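Quick one: MICOS complex subunit from Lachancea nothofagi CBS 11611, structure tokens please.
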Amino acid sequence: MAPNFYRPADIVAEAVIPPETGSIISSEAKEAAPSHDRRNSVSHQVAEIIGDNRLMDGISVRSPTYMTQFFNSWRSSLTDTLEKARNTIDEKSSIYYSHERRLTTTVANLHSDPREELLPGLTYSLVAAMSGSVLTKNKHIFARIVAPLALGTMCFSYVLPVTSSNTFDLMFDLEHKAFPRFAQGQLTLFANCKHAVRTTVAASEETSKAISGSLTKAAHLIKEWTGLNV
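--- reply ---
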């Protein structure tokens, strides 16, 4: 029979671990208790500093109460701070992504007609604005400011009609939110101008009809009196 060099280890018999029914002998450290004895009094003071002796899974552990309370308080404070910081970051990130999404959607909605060529149109508008600046180089400061804006805006409205309309609507919405009274004044002025134009057109049509009727009557009278076909 071959020798067995790998014998099975009996960890209970070799006292590696205590048996289930065995007893655990505590260390010689004694629980501090108040006493009139000076030695016990010193032991009590030491126990208050380093903590009471407790057996946890066969291991003697000392945990001072003040240190446990300190770390619990510190851990709670740190956890609350981190939680507030995380909530703040989430809130700010949500606001940022909301504004970013709104901005990208607004910019995408400005160029809603794919038939309009955006880059050439903007180039033409820029050239028109620069032409206005060149034409009013030696003019009054008011003309040098108004001319480039007017020419650039008119060119922008001509070459990119849908994009310019969307842009003007967006600018008016922003103006209405920031300056509601000024925007309302613009609406009132626009309505008055529109009404004046309609009144002028209607009056012009009536005047034209009246003049045309008078000319027709005059031609008819001349024809009757003179026999001439006017």
